[in-house]
Write a structure and sequence with these properties.
104 residues; mainly beta; Rieske Iron-sulfur Protein; four-stranded antiparallel β-sheet; three-stranded antiparallel β-sheet; 10 strands; 43% strand
Length: 104
């Protein structure tokens, strides 16, 4: 199910925002190259909010311990994280951001 999240203009390039769907927190990231990404808003190493981290090219870095994750795949790119973060398919139409989100 495609779920509307926000407008592209709500997220500055190179930044991320935290969005909650029920009790589930997501990080919506606007990469410096203009692409929008969505992933769980929880570092797989320390359960720290990734939306408060640092966006650089196609990665996001956890502010607490420095673990970096791919915005495309959620794969950990540096220690101390070794587990991936779940990513979600994003669709942008007319400045609106939608994600494929199954609540099951």
């Amino acid at each position: 199910m495609a779920l509307r999240i926000c407008n592209v203009s709500d997220i500055k390039p190179g930044r991320a925002i935290r969005v909650k769907i029920g009790d589930h927190a997501l990080a919506i990231i606007h990469s410096p190259n203009g692409e929008i990404h969505a992933m769980d808003d929880k570092c797989s190493h320390g359960e720290i909010s990734l939306s408060e981290g640092f966006v650089d090219n196609e990665t996001i870095e956890c502010w607490a311990h420095g673990a970096k994750f791919s915005l495309e795949s959620g794969a950990p790119l540096s220690l101390p994280a070794y587990e991936p973060v779940k990513v979600y398919e994003v669709l942008v139409e007319n400045d609106e951001v939608f994600i494929e989100y199954d609540q099951a």
